[in-house]
Amino acid sequence: TRLPSTLGGGSAVSMSAADVHNFALTADGAVWSWGGGAFGKLGHGDWEKRCQPNKVEAFAGQRVVAVSGGGYHSLALAADGDVWSWGLGSSGRLGHGDQQNQLLPKKIEAFAGQRVIAVSAGASHSLAITADGAVWSWGYGGQGRLGHGDEQHQLLPKKIEAFADQRVVAVSAGDAHSIALTADGAVWSWGRGLCLLGHGDQHIQLLPKKVEAFAGLRVIAV
User: Fold this and answer.
1) CA separation, residue 136 to residues 73, 80, 90 (Å)
2) Would you say 83 and 108 are in contact if contact means Cβ atoms under 8 Å apart?
3) Distance (Å, rounded) from C-alpha 93 to C-alpha 154?
4) Any idea what the Cα angle at residue 30 is, between residues 29 and 35, rounded to 5°?
5) Separation of CA 138 from chain center
6) Strand runs labelled E in 115-197
7) 34-49 burial: b if 16+ Cβ within 10 Å, else e
8) Given a cut of 80, is residue 149 above it in pLDDT?
9) How high does pLDDT run on average in the chain?
10) 177-182: strand order across its sheet
């Protein structure tokens, strides 16, 4: 069913469906959100749910180029390469060095001097790619979903050193696992096993591991 809202007359160019909330990005770089509002994940400064799209006014004056909704938090990427996060702050999933909730979008200062080109919000962790092809992760570290070889939580973005010799072009954060696509068309996965990772077993992977089932194929999206 077509949405009743006109999104301010703008044309939608991308969408993100999270656990219980949604985002639309319009051609003018505005962000619209609707759904459940717990912990401020809609970005309107309150906990109220919204049954129709509402513009996130905190981005007035900014041009957003990508948005990603997670379990109870959200990420946005601005045209200048800055990353903004809001919502539930537990385990550091917002990347601000603490566990405070944010009812409004707040810039992740840890990326100062870096240009981020992609973001993905999972259930309780976050991923980003910088212009040099490096992957950064932060938030809840259980089952190795952050890719650092351990299960520690990260309150600030931390580079995944396992990709030091690779150029990553896409990432996707899931519930308790993560996936990356490298420039050579290979897929890598890490985190909780349970047949989620594509390695033919159910083992936890604390570090990124190439999905060998794609040998001979060039993957273009994950």
Assistant:
1) 17, 18, 18
2) yes
3) 8
4) 135
5) 10
6) 116-121, 125-130, 135-139, 154-159, 168-173, 177-182, 187-191
7) bbbbbbbbbbbbeeee
8) yes
9) 96
10) 168-173, 177-182, 187-191, 205-210
Helix, strand, or coil (residue 110): helix
Whether residue 156 contacts residue 97, with contact meaning beta carbons closer than 8 Å, is answered with yes
Q: What is the DSSP code string of 37-72?
A: -GGGTTSSSS---EEEEEE-GGGTT--EEEEEE-SS
Which tokens go with 14? 């991308």
pLDDT tens sequence across 168-205: 999 999 999 999 999 999 999 999 999 999 999 999 99
Instruction: Give the position of tokens 């932060």.
Output: 138
Q: What gap in Å lies between CA 94 and CA 13, rounded to an integer?
A: 25
Cα separation, 109 vs 41, whole angstroms: 19
pTM of the model: 0.96
Q: In whole angstroms, give the CA distance from residue 14 to residue 77.
A: 13
